[in-house]
Amino acid sequence: MSEADFLKTYDPTDFPPVAVTVDLVLMTVLDRRLRVLLQFRESAPFAESFGLPGTFVGIDEDLADTAARVVREELVLEPQFLEQLRTFGAPARDPRMRVVSVAYFALLPCARLQHLVDDDYVGPATLATVERQQDTIRIIHHDGCELEPLPFDHEEIVTVAVDRLRAKLDWSDVAFSLLPEEFTLRQLQEVHEAIRGEQLSKPPFRKRMLDSKRIEPTGRRESGCAFRPAELYRRSARA
User: Fold this and answer.
1) What's the number of domains the chain is made of?
2) What is the pLDDT along the chain (239 residues), one digit of tens a residue?
3) Are residues 55 and 125 in the same domain?
4) C-alpha distances in angstroms, 129 versus 13, 42, 138, 159, 226?
5) Pair 79, 130 in one domain
6) Which of 129, 149, 169 is the last residue of a domain?
7) Does the pTM of the predicted model rise above 0.85?
């Protein structure tokens, strides 16, 4: 039988239906803490809970196009860093039907995400604090209260995103996606500390960053400071 003849007789209903979704982990650093954007779910399943932004993949849509659609159309954003994270396919992860999710994570400076939440572009939402400690993760609402377990397997997705981010910190330039174009060494260290979940010693951190040649001085200093303004740096063109 030729392939054309086979396709004519092929019946996709021979197999159980499976839907595919994209879930998005949007992360930033705010007030020296790692944060994740969570949207309030107003309808079932898991109504009146906070979860990751996401949507079903269109029948003629590429996965990356779906992720970009969520970011641009639903969140009105243009991320500086967007990466496929992992596929999540536990049989009972969605109570509606068999749903496989492909998770992506993106990094944005805090001002852009804070503006999104404050101006209610995405409906009720929060920039929840993420604390990753050993084998556990805590997700805390902006009012300081720990959130109820996230819907579906979103806590697992956030955990994997934090671990991926920490693993990439030393050898990639992901930290720059969480900073303005020009930044101080203090701001750069705060981003590293928020991602790692620990304080770093200032002198060796600054020496390591300067020796890496991944940043370069701009010749300018920050403004509006009560104390001596710090020197501003930017990502090196050679990085």
Assistant:
1) 2
2) 899 999 889 988 899 999 999 999 999 999 999 999 999 999 999 999 999 999 999 999 999 999 988 888 777 777 667 899 999 999 999 999 999 999 999 888 888 778 777 766 667 888 999 998 878 899 998 778 888 899 999 999 999 999 999 999 988 889 999 999 999 999 999 999 999 999 999 999 999 999 998 999 999 998 877 678 899 999 997 65
3) yes
4) 44, 22, 8, 12, 28
5) yes
6) 169
7) yes
